[in-house]
């Protein structure tokens, strides 16, 4: 009996060490728009945090026999409501360490799909993480109907004759949250991303209500596809669910399948055949079973599928 108790104590000590190594107290975990800090409470790990706009909410991860597997729960488990900030009560959560990219993150699973991820990061500034996600979706070159060039490159842009030289820009804010407004040299521009490219307007600012509205139409811009598709960032970075929530379901379907198209996937649906068949960079292969996705691509496909499954009445799509 003493031997059994000793082995059990060793096992508990090992598990405690693994938990503290993977999810240490005081570390910071980001969803892309929110940040949470964990505290080990024994049988569970409590995550508390918030967004740029508000804080003071959280969730718990109940420990299991595996140091890398958890069950998602709420701070107040007596509440009948099953929503748990980053998923639903009872969702499976898995800790992942990607040695190739040195990524540490938590995967939240719903219906066997990754529905959300939390990144571990040492950087304290959540605001700049949100900005980076907004910038990467803008990046690239566009052309107007007048043939003028528009370029976006991580915080710098050129907007045809309106901003003829590459200039730094920042995003407008409403209630301390960045929105789809560019602030450049004292001027304000509102943009709306489309499947084809972007629509650009003057942005009118209402100081009393701290909000922007769409003003004069400026340009309809076409994305210049340089052989990597409309959403190249879906294959180059690990993203959060929040990066795709404001796209239409039509765009989400194309976005998800674009990841496969870059690999040479052979499509059966006529609309996908026609859409990707019109792209010079698309070269269908012969055997889909030989196509392999990277870890980040697989997660992004899951995240997009999860967003596509959300009922329309529960989604907010940014529309022109």
Layout of secondary structure:
Elements: H1 2-22, E1 29-30, E2 34-40, E3 44-51, E4 55-63, E5 69-73, E6 92-98, E7 103-110, E8 113-120, H2 126-138, E9 140-144, E10 149-152, E11 156-159, E12 163-168, E13 170-174, E14 177-184, E15 187-193, E16 197-206, E17 211-223, H3 249-261, H4 270-277, H5 295-308
Helix pairs in contact: 3-5
Give structural notes.
With 320 residues, this protein is α+β, with helices and mostly antiparallel strands. It has 3 domains: 18-124, Lipocalin (Beta Barrel), CATH 2.40.128; 127-223; 232-314, Methane Monooxygenase Hydroxylase, Chain G, domain 1 (Up-down Bundle). The chain has 5 helices and 17 strands. It has a 9-stranded antiparallel beta sheet, covered by helices on one side. An 8-stranded antiparallel beta barrel has the order 1-2-3-4-5-6-7-8.
> Separation of termini?
71 Å
Mean of all residue-level pLDDT scores? 90
Helix fraction by DSSP (H/I, runs of at least 4): 10-25%
Number of domains: 3
Widest β-sheet, arrangement of strands: 12-11-10-9-17-16-15-14-13
What's the total helix number?
5
Give a count of the beta strands, DSSP E runs of length 2 or more.
Answer: 17
Radius of gyration: 22 Å
Overall morphology: globular
